[in-house]
Design brief:
Layout (H helix, E strand, L loop, with lengths): L11 E10 L2 E10 L2 E7 L2 E8 L4 H11 L9 E8 L4 E7 L1 H9 L4 E2 L12 H4 L14 H11 L4 H6 L3 E6 L5 E7 L2 H15 L7 E4 L5 H10 L3 E4 L5 H10 L2 E7 L2 E6 L14
Parallel strand pairs: 3-6, 4-7, 10-11, 11-12
Antiparallel strand pairs: 1-2, 3-4, 5-6, 8-9, 8-10, 12-13
Length: about 280
């Protein structure tokens, strides 16, 4: 037994495992990603329960409120309180009264499951809400997208420890990481990034958004709400996501492997290298 204790890491839990290598079994210490029920309440009204990693929860609450259209600006969130219980964690969010009235008009019960950002919506209109148009945004070279994706993995301590979480990052137009958030749910990671960027005063409209997952419809919806005009995904998008990104005027790039990538829409923002004569 490897008795050396592992360092504490927010969002991870210690575990004893049996590791098999080359036909040999060895008991070892490992870490697993925590996944807990996180309830979001707005001015005392229960709104959503998501399964999420219990780290960066204030970022999660603020980002969820912004990307779901509950508030339009961070200043409309007055306070975020965290309450733990045997069942999970409750995030009590105080928002402006005018936003609460709008929320009541479209109040829904949302039961989130890992990897699903639309579970529990009670109408097609809510699930397929219009994607706001994005601004002009930065021009970007393909090499910057490759650099951003390559830089993401070393900045994922929870993934390195557990192998079971997604990441979302804001990067400069050169591909340099500005802010990274992780979560067991890809949409939760993006919500945490949104909240963290708002709290840090980062202008997402001038940045690239990089995600470690596929680009599904809710990722495009949340990216557009954040104001990002360039979304780069490690995996491929869905057809619905490409249609939504096209309608929003977004650049959507996926299947990024080193310098290889696929541009699905918005190629006008890419600064392609000049071709050599005769090529």
């Amino acid at each position: 037994m490897d008795a050396k204790p592992l360092p504490l890491l927010p969002g991870a839990a210690p575990a004893k495992v049996l590791r098999v290598r080359s036909g040999q079994a060895l008991e070892q210490r490992d870490r697993l990603c925590e996944e807990v029920a996180v309830a979001l309440e707005f001015n005392g009204i229960s709104h959503a329960v998501m399964l999420a990693t219990p780290a960066d929860l204030e970022d999660f609450a603020l980002g969820f409120a912004l990307t779901e259209g509950i508030v339009e600006h961070p200043d409309e969130v007055f306070d975020i309180a965290t309450e733990e219980s045997a069942q999970g964690i409750t995030l009590r969010v105080e928002i402006a009264s005018r936003r609460l009235q709008a929320l009541k008009l479209r109040r829904r019960s949302l039961a989130g499951r890992t990897g699903c950002g639309l579970c529990g919506t009670d109408s097609l209109e809510q699930a397929l809400r219009p994607v706001p148009p994005v601004g002009a945004g930065p021009e970007v070279a393909p090499a910057a997208l490759a650099r951003a994706v390559a830089a993401l993995r070393p900045l994922q301590p929870l993934f390195e420890a557990t192998g079971s979480v997604h990441a979302a990052a804001l990067c400069s137009a050169r591909g340099d990481p500005l802010l990274v958030r992780e979560d067991v749910g890809r949409h939760n990671a993006l919500d945490k990034l949104t909240g963290g960027a708002a709290r840090a005063g980062l202008d997402a409209r001038a940045a690239l958004l990089v995600i470690s997952s596929r680009a599904s419809i809710e990722m495009v919806q949340k990216a557009a709400t954040l104001g990002c005009s360039v979304l780069a995904a490690v995996s491929a998008p869905t057809a619905l996501a490409v249609r939504a990104a096209t309608a929003a005027g977004m650049t959507l790039v996926g299947r990024i492997r080193g310098d290889d990538m696929v541009v699905y829409c918005g190629a006008q923002r890419l600064r392609m290298p000049a071709r050599a004569p005769g090529s």
